[in-house]
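Page 42, continued from yesterday. The earlier attempt failed because a stray header line got pasted into the input along with the sequence. Redoing it now with the clean sequence only.
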Amino acid sequence: MSLDTRDAASDLNDLIGTASRIRSAIESVIEGKPEVVRLALTVLLAEGHLLIEDVPGVGKTMLAKSLARSVDCSVRRVQFTPDLLPSDITGVSAFNAEVREFEFKPGPVFANIVVGDEINRASPKTQSALLECMEERQVTVDGTTFELEAPFMVIATQNPVEMEGTYPLPEAQRDRFTARISMGYPEPSAELEMLDVHGTTSPLDKLEPVATAADVRALTDVVRSVHVSDAVRRYVIDLTSATRSAPELRLGASPRATLQLVRASRAWAALHDRDYVVPDDVQELAVPVLAHRLLPTAEAQVERRLPEQVVTDLLNRVPVQGRSGR
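This time it went through. Structure tokens are written below.
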């Protein structure tokens, strides 16, 4: 085994160990949702952003806060409301009478992890304040651009659009979220355990950080080095291209979706102790990464053909170029 190979194996082992600690910390608060926790961790390591959508009361905010608290880094929470302004998120320039010049007061977006609670209760104008920072990792206020420190992740929760007082997220906003997940109702056994654990005190209060921002930066470097073969790359492109010609969809997956599916697949492979991506990784992540970006046609909506179902059908139809990831 060469020195480079040993170093790569050591880096992957470090990733597995750190990720396992973070996952255990989150699962001490979120009972009975191991796949949801794994997917949230995948998005963090893929340097992406996470959208958690479900009905009220199933633990969306708890998952976001648990992930944020498990890493020792700067965390800011924003409660989105109809009267929230874009400057309440990005910051504002205020006049300092003592020095007789304007000073920039950073908003809550200047943090490593930004928890946006009920993001679709704010107006589309306010939601759009996140567009630049989510894609370019920077904020421009009054003609001045400020860089955001890595890691930077937005974890947003939202209620389904059928709920009262919600605004649908703009297409450009949805496309910037790497993945969308749903918590779902817990199993009866997990709900019973929740009554015991959460009955007197919140386990979130006892959650201590198990990793640092520097650890996360090191892990994302390891994820970037995970190998993606030409065959797997072609499979990803074939899959996203198929969404653009699907008769049930009037808006298919963007090139950004293709890129983020590959990034997420790298992180998923690393979490499964592999330094290469296989088609199974892509298939596991296709629905959470692609479905929220797709817009069904009016006919598909009448027939209740959800984008998730369309992606699942495409996974069954699009041929896999090769099963090996090497």
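Notes: The chain has two domains: 3-222, 227-317.
Reminder to self: strip header lines before submitting.
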